[in-house]
Design a protein that fits this description.
This protein is an alpha+beta fold. It has three helices and five strands.
């Protein structure tokens, strides 16, 4: 049994968000939840919501209430908003506002 949750267009760079997902892969749900709860990163809050959503999907769709494990936690790159900031001598500096797609898969097998 697998339960999936996806958060799309999260306003955080995928490079920064991948730091947190590396911590929770392969861990039990309760251990992963405590890791993201106490992580001092913006991405931890986004991943926590996705993790809780996957748990709710497991309970509602598959009636799973036993021990769940994080099988997969992936950060995909979303679209980039391109902005420009004025620079010296009439030039323009490009600013990329990156977005992420967060996918968490929970399973009851190790």
């Amino acid at each position: 049994m697998e339960a999936t949750a996806i958060t799309k267009f999260a306003r955080i760079s995928p490079f920064k968000a991948r730091e947190v997902t590396r911590l929770i892969q392969g861990k039990s749900y309760s251990e992963a939840l405590s890791l993201v709860t106490f992580a001092n990163k913006k991405a931890a809050g986004i991943i926590k919501k996705t993790l809780e959503s996957a748990k709710a999907n497991a309970e509602n769709n598959h009636r799973a209430s036993d021990e769940l494990f994080v099988k997969l936690a992936v950060i995909g790159e979303g679209p980039t908003m391109k902005r420009f900031k004025p620079k010296a001598r009439g030039m323009a500096g490009r600013i990329n506002k990156r977005t992420s797609h967060v996918k968490v898969v929970l399973t009851d097998e190790i």
